[in-house]
């Protein structure tokens, strides 16, 4: 089985940090569990990243952008691309937020 290198871009890291800070204010215990879960799920993309659906936002980009859904209810969406043997985590946002668009 192929093993991909997972790279979290600075933008995605910033998204995670902002979400964590917001969650920390609302519910510190949940925030810690959320952070661990999102990190674990991102690392799991090292195997079978193509098993995740192409995101609806993908049409706004020049390459296929896939999404990893994390959590129950309205999930968090982790957007990523695959290039050769690398998975690039581009952006993280809550499912209730508007669609993500290139800046």
UniProtKB/TrEMBL annotation:
Q: Which UniProt keywords apply?
A: Toxin-antitoxin system
Q: Which domain of life is it from?
A: Bacteria
Q: Is-annotated flag, keyword ATP-binding? A: no
**Entry annotated with the keyword Hydrolase:** no
Family annotation (InterPro entries): RelE/ParE_toxin, RelE/ParE_toxin_dom_sf, TA_system_RelE-like_toxin
Query: According to its UniProt record, which protein family does this protein belong to?
Result: Belongs to the RelE toxin family.
PANTHER family reported in the protein's UniProt record: TOXIN PARE1-RELATED
Q: What is this protein called?
A: Plasmid stabilization system
């Amino acid at each position: 089985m192929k093993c991909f290198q997972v790279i979290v871009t600075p933008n995605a890291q910033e998204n995670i940090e902002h979400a964590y800070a917001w969650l920390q204010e609302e519910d510190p215990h949940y925030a810690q569990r959320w952070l661990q879960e999102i990190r674990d799920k991102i690392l799991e993309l090292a195997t079978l990243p193509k098993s995740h659906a192409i995101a609806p936002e993908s049409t706004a980009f020049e390459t296929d952008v896939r999404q990893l859904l994390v959590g129950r209810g309205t999930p968090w969406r982790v957007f990523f691309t695959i290039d050769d043997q690398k998975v690039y985590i581009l952006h993280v946002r809550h499912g209730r937020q508007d669609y993500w668009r290139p800046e």
